[in-house]
Amino acid sequence: MSKTKVLFLCTGNSCRSQMAEGWARYLHCDKIDAYSAGIEAHGMNPNAIKVMAEAGLDITGQSSKLASTLEDVPLDVVITVCGHADEHCPGFLGKARVVHVGFDDPPKLANTAASEEEALDHYRRVRDEIREFVANDLLNVISV
Questions:
Q1: What's an example Gene Ontology biological process for this entry (predicted)?
Q2: Is the dihedral of CA 14, 59, 18, 1 positive or negative?
Q3: Is 10 a catalytic residue?
Q4: CATH number for the domain including 130?
């Protein structure tokens, strides 16, 4: 049986979609081929890498990339993890079923943090929310 090809899409492919790809690879590698990409490519967010490492996942092998680099991948489901990506989902991805599951933007939240630790707490919360979604809801969402 072939695996379901799932793309996690966000604006810059630096944080939320990277976390989601990491969790999907870790929790469902037997059922899902996970990808992440962005409307833009902002590079990997160091705080996302840091908090994922705290949870035991190394996402440094992933890279920030444009959605257009996956044009030849026969995606089954695209999950947009931010409103901007949902509103601007590239047309070629329309062949796949698009589902929106939004998460707060840790870098934006961290801008108002009083300390580095408080900033990281925003990343940790979103990391844990994404893990919860991937662990408990993702398989139901992609099988609809």
A1: response to arsenic-containing substance
A2: positive
A3: yes
A4: 3.40.50.2300
Q: Which domain holds residue 132?
A: 4-137
Taking the C-alpha atoms of residue 81 and residue 9, their distance in angstroms, rounded to an integer, is 6
pTM equals 0.95
Does residue 92 fall inside a structural domain?
yes
Identified catalytic residue from 6, 7, 9, 10: 10
Catalytic residue list contains 29: no
Q: Does residue 143 fall inside a structural domain? A: no
Structure tokens at 129: 């929310």
- Please give the tally of structural domains in the chain: 1
The residue whose two tokens read 């989902």 is 89
Per-residue pLDDT tens listing for the chain (144 residues): 789 999 999 999 999 999 999 999 999 999 999 999 999 999 999 999 999 999 999 999 999 999 999 999 999 999 999 999 889 888 877 689 999 999 999 999 999 999 999 999 999 999 999 999 999 999 999 886
